[in-house]
Design a protein that fits this description.
This protein has 215 residues and is of the alpha/beta class. The protein has two domains: 105 residues, Periplasmic binding protein-like II (D-Maltodextrin-Binding Protein, domain 2, 3-Layer(aba) Sandwich), CATH 3.40.190.10; 97 residues, Periplasmic binding protein-like II (D-Maltodextrin-Binding Protein, domain 2, 3-Layer(aba) Sandwich). Strands 1, 2, 3, 4, 5, 8, 9 and 10 form an eight-stranded mixed β-sheet that branches. It has a two-stranded parallel sheet with strand order 6-7. Helix 1 packs across helix 5. The radius of gyration is 18 Å and the shape is elongated. The relative contact order is 0.25.
Length: 215
Amino acid sequence: MGVVGRVSIGFAGASSYGCLPVLTRAVTTQLPGIELVLEGPTYAGEALGRIAGDVLDVGFVSLPVRRGVSARVVRVEPLMVALPDGHRLAGCAEIPLSQLASEAFVTFPASRGSAVREAMVQACRDTGFTPRIVQEAPDAYTLLALVGAGVGVGIVVASADSIRLEHVCFRRLAGSGLPTLPIALAWRTGNESAALQAVLRVAEQVLPTPTAYAD
């Protein structure tokens, strides 16, 4: 009959939306005895705490991870800017981050440990300004809806480009030294659950480690 069990997976954001279906479809096909419990939105900071506390089996997180948690990078995401389609910069193919210094920003909640928000704030500070955050959104769809409504601009991972909403456009950020966001699959070190280990083996097949992060 194969491995039988239950595995909970925490996810949030566009990167998870891209990785999660690949993993869940493969597990459903290869491990029919495994019940997957999908828990979202669970941001990186939340996921790490819940994994370390043995409340969540596995989650999509950013690096670094905390002590007692193991992780493997499954995707590397560049950052992009999401703009209202009538924005003054919408006609540009690439936009230097410095050109956004006077803009209002919408982003994910600081209280929930969003890696995208942290990367955005740090990139802006490295460019010489502190982003003026006017509203927070609980997920990528809501964030992009706020952008389309003209509330502000948003810094998102490139995978968000797959979310198509009216009145929203995506542009690459120009310049050197811009951060990329490694997305990792994380689990509690020492968790010997047969169901979890089976899911991790499937993940290695369908979500291989990018060359830059391979051993």
